[in-house]
Amino acid sequence: MNFITSKPQDFSWNKVHKVGSNMRKGLPYDEDILESFLEHQVYLSTEIMDICKAAMNSLIKPYSTSETPDVEPDSGAYVLSARVKTLPTLKEKLVRMPTYPLENILDVSGIRFDCDLTLSEQTNISDTFRNCLLIAGADKVEIQDMRENPHSGYRAVHLHIHCTAGRAELQVRTALQAQWANMYETAADVFGRNIRYLEFGAEVDDTAIKTVERLHKISDAVYQSELLMDKAHAPQPQDLQTAPWHQETRQLRRKAYDLLRSELDYLKQLRADSNLGK
Predict the structure, then answer these.
(1) How confident is the model at residue 278 (pLDDT cuts 50, 70, 90)?
(2) Domain check: are 116 and 188 in the same one?
(3) Same domain, 128 and 201
(4) What is the pLDDT of residue 246?
(5) 223's torsion region: left (phi>0), alpha (psi -120 to 50) or beta?
């Protein structure tokens, strides 16, 4: 029996619910139950990663594991990683989502799949992961496509996984989407995590607003470059597969990636400077 089809042994969902409710209210909670729940989520993430790795090995087009944390365009590489939310982040989310129980939060277990993909390839691989997870025993896998309508500039395809063992979120991102997300996370370190929730009414100062507007414009430009790349590299007759615009669109994607990396380096320097000033 796969792990994702097994019920938790060391806690009940009712007890996890009570822990989450007390954490949200700032009341004492059963730390042993929380520790067991988070450890369980680590095992769930590992199981999902194994299913994804097996799916990648079955593809006709070869992909390799990246030797660096970042995936660059035209590398044919991917990075598959996972994390379980830290206690402060979990408490913050519980407070921000006052009607959402702890056991239903999808991204307590978060798995990231960053890969050298076109948008069409991203769609196909997301569907492949979904089918493999269902075959492995997941009860339901919902796909959330945030490419055309991003969340605070963030674009990706998310798989929301529901299974007997619990819930998890699998993020499928292209090289450019992943680099933009890294850049925005760094900006959140500099200007505060509220920049991630402006569309939900969060407030930040004018300096942060100007930066956010610039980063959102970069997100729009990156998306347009990926749309162009996708159209240029769609299946075509043999005599069109080496057309000049193929190389031009690859160069455009590379320039977009370099722009993101430059902005990321700038934000990292701002973060370092602000930490020195504390």
Answers:
(1) low
(2) no
(3) no
(4) 75
(5) alpha
Residue 235, CA distances (Å) to 122, 124, 213, 228, 241 in order: 15, 14, 36, 14, 8
In terms of domains, do 96 and 151 share one? yes
Alpha carbon distance 45, 81 (integer Å) = 9
Rounded Cα gap, residues 136 and 134, in angstroms: 5
Alpha-carbon distance of 112 to 122, in angstroms, equals: 13
Q: Which range of residues forms the domain containing residue 169?
A: 3-175
Comparing CA positions, the residue from 176, 205, 186 lying closest to residue 273 is 186
Using H for helix, E for strand and C for coil, what is the string for the chain? Answer: CCHHHCCCCCCCHHHHHHHHHHHHHCCCCCHHHHHHHHHHHHHHHHHHHHHHHHHHHCCCCCCEECCCCCCCCCCCEEEEEEEECCHHHHHHHHHHCCCCCHHHCHHHEEEEEEECCCHHHHHHHHHHHHHHHHHHCCCEEEEEECCCCCECCECCEEEEEEECCEEEEEEEEEHHHHHHHHHHHHHHHHHCHHHHCHHHCCCCCHHHHHHHHHHHHHHHHHHHHHHHHHHHCCCCCHHHCCCHHHHHHHHHHHHHHHHHHHHHHHHHHHHHHHHHCC
My answer on whether 62 and 166 are in the same domain is yes
Place of tokens 């997100």: 219
Q: Residue 176's closest CA among 229, 233, 214, 130?
A: 229
Asked whether residue 80 falls in the same domain as residue 207, the answer is no
pLDDT at residue 239 in the model: 46
The count of structural domains within the chain is 2
pTM of this structure: 0.92
